[in-house]
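Private note to self, pasted from the team thread so I don't lose it. Backbone tokens:
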């Protein structure tokens, strides 16, 4: 199980690559139910769980080609704002789902900087 119960219920999630960073890594964006919050231990715990469940990720981590994932809590409404942004860009409301990997820098910035 990748997400610890004590972290609270997960509302939504997505990720992004940080290939331009000094040590490339993944950003993990999480929106939790009201009252829940990330603790400093949860980022490393998620990285360990990813390594245990994904041999390729673990291999890249062992080689130093990837740094540990960086976990960022998104305040309430962040993913709804992302949906609105994507609709304004012409996405079809019937086909729109949360992207599990964000490739648009503006979308990454939106979640990174969202203040609900």
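Design output:
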């Amino acid at each position: 199980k990748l997400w610890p119960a004590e972290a609270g219920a997960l509302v939504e999630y997505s990720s992004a690559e940080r290939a331009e960073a000094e040590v490339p890594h993944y950003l993990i964006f999480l929106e939790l139910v009201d009252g829940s919050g990330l603790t400093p231990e949860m980022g490393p715990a998620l990285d360990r769980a990813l390594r245990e469940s994904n041999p390729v990720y673990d291999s890249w981590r062992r080689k130093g080609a990837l740094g540990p994932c960086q976990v960022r809590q998104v305040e309430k409404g962040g993913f709804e704002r992302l949906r609105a942004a994507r609709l304004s860009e012409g996405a079809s409301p019937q086909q729109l789902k949360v992207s599990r990997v964000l490739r648009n820098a503006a979308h990454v910035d939106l979640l990174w900087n969202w203040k609900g």
